[in-house]
Amino acid sequence: MFDFYFHLPLWIRMPAQGLAVILVLFPLAAACSMAERKICAWIQGRPGPNRTIPPWIAWVPVIAPILQHLGVFQLAADGGKFVFKEDPVPGHVNKFYFILSPILAMIPALTTVAIVPFGAYLSEGRLVPIMLANVDIGLLAVFAVSSLGVYSVILAGWASNSKYPFLGSVRASAQLISYELSMTLSVLPVFLWVNAPGGHGTLSLFDVVQSQSQPGFLGGLWFIVFMPLSAFIFLVALFAETNRQPFDMPESEADLVGGFHTEYGAFKWSLFFVAEYCHMIVGSGVFVLLFLGGWNPLPWLPLATVADWLGLAGIPLAMGVLGIVIFLGKVAAFIFFFMWVRWTLPRFRYDQVMKIGWQRLLPLAIANLIFYALAIAVIQK
Amino acid sequence: MAVVPVPRKPLTFAERTYLPQIAGGLWTTLKHFVGPKDTMEYPEQRPAIPPNYRGVPTLVFDPHGREKCVSCQLCEFVCPPKAIRITPGEITSDDPAAHVEKRPQEFEIDMLRCIYCGLCQEVCPEEAIFLQNQYSMTGLSRAEMVNDKQRLYELGGTLPDAHFKWDKKKAAEEHSHSH
Amino acid sequence: MSALLFNFLAVFIVACAAGVVLNRNAVASALCLLLSLVGVAGLFVQLDAFLLAALLVFVYAGAVVALFLFIIMLLDMQGGDRKPFTGLTLAAGTLAFLLLAGGVFSFAAHARLPATPAPAQAAGASLQNYAELLFTTYLLPVEVVGFLLLIAMLGVIVLSKKFEPELEPGAGSQKPDVRSQMSDAGNRKPEGSQEIPNHP
Hints:
Number of domains of chain A: 1
Structural class of chain B: alpha+beta
Structural class of chain A: mainly alpha
Number of helices of chain A: 18
Number of helices of chain B: 6
Strand content of chain B: 5-15%
Distance between the termini of chain B: 79 Å
Strand order of the largest sheet of chain B: 2-3-5
Helix content of chain A: 55-70%
Strand order of the largest sheet of chain A: 1-2
Radius of gyration of chain A: 22 Å
CATH topology of the domain at 57-161 in chain B: Alpha-Beta Plaits
Order of helices and strands of chain B: HHEHEEHEEHH
Largest interface: A-C, 29 and 23 residues
Shape of chain B: elongated
Shape of chain A: globular
Number of strands of chain A: 2
Oligomer: heterotrimer
């Protein structure tokens, strides 16, 4: 059905895919920001934004009030505000880098999506992932590209040429590098298990999901049950890498005003904001793929089986949509968890952040790796 | 004061991992998340006004429809931010309330200055000025925020009167004349 | 397409590398280095060596240059008055350039690669090939490099950690001595005046 697409020349397909990423991720990130406001409000016993509605929609009977109370139009209003309000550049900044860094923030945030599979369909008996670039280094590429995200923060803080952004960016550079180590080490057991001896050797996220869809007790088990410590370390490191509470050192409104984006306003600030949510979405997606079975609805219940029951196995489009819906549902639940934690926990002190990263998480990750290396060697022998 | 040294217990392992506390915190916020909301949706829901609430100062009529203010100007003198301006006026002899002698010709309260202290109500010998339940005063210009006499009576309306002081005085006068 | 991309990347890398040397601003230099590394990663991708590209970006572009920036910001190096070239660096640069030019010339003039068709699949492209080579043929070098890094790390710890001499009993008594001498020097007059009534 979509074969014509793959026959298009590369120079049409690549911009089309890039545009698709932007067109999907920007609204998703915006929706996340609205979800954040609503969840924050509900946790604090408030209804949250529930007033905004354009008059020409207000007359629609049932749907309009529901959308109004969910704050959907507030989202559009916020977006419009960011685009149209005055976008000042303070006089004391290094102008080139000041304008460059929000743009730089978007690049890794949007690029990593290309390597994350978000669904699968059956084609001639084989499960085919739905993703933009199926490379066998998969997760490593995600880590590599997302590790570039630190530069936007560093540059923003440095170019702002004022002390709070500067402190924020110094903190960011130390924190992000510290937690990258634990993060990488924590996923190694997963790939030790996935790359059973005699396999072709892969870091692809699709294969991780595949190995959680096998028959048998261990085959269908999600890795969060099989390797809870790995999942935990990855989770904590993910919070630190996405600068979310309780690790939002680079921002810390209380002591650094706004951290690295103190001097930013309007559209440039919103780019940082969108980048943060894109990181969160991609991070949640990677966690779901690694530890929560990807697009499989339940442990021991692969997508292919469910599609078979529903009679969708023969229709690639329907099965693909089903897989994407399940995957996005899990990601949404995970993003909710991010926000839930944010509005529950206070921020760690900076020395605590460093201590947790280097003295707790890193040894734990190494011990975890050694333990699972031995365990997997015993199991797979 | 005696100093009581409180021994600080070392944290248990579970406490040092933060995790039980984090789980407890998450449980608390989840309860709030699904629980009822405390917000009052203001324009639709209005707060219950307690008795003796000090809202916008107003002028009132007595039950016979006589304006109670006699423009003695005590409120004008006592008003701390000087929000009240009164122009006293004579009551013409053909008026049914002619025995009261005076009423305000103009009575203005500048709500941009008023601090809702209630001293005017406190000081009024005629019980003519009251801070009532109205709490929301808005306007698009400074001039709009000055309540003139007509508006003050509109806001105040009629309040019950326990004394009918001026009627009693008039009756007493007539009684003494008849003797 | 491929040749065009290679040419573009090559020019990009060299331009960025020149930027590292020529920039007066240390932060800008570090960023040029970053761009140059990303360009090299692009070259690796052109060779189908995705793993190398990803590792280069992850380790060097993602972490090492970030640490450079961290250090630059921590030390607050403004570097506005730094001259790009002094006499010595100019001489060294010229020498290096001549050596490089000589090398390239001799390579182009004398080295004759056997005319093979383009390699179908680079040997190191797949993850498994890397892993096998690292754990069989190159196991010893990998271990040696790892050991070297460990030694370097220990060296940094030894150099950066201050071993306080005050912990030892002999060295610890040094400081109070100095202080008491200084207070003696400062208080000599009052002490002396106090002593006078005591003497008779």
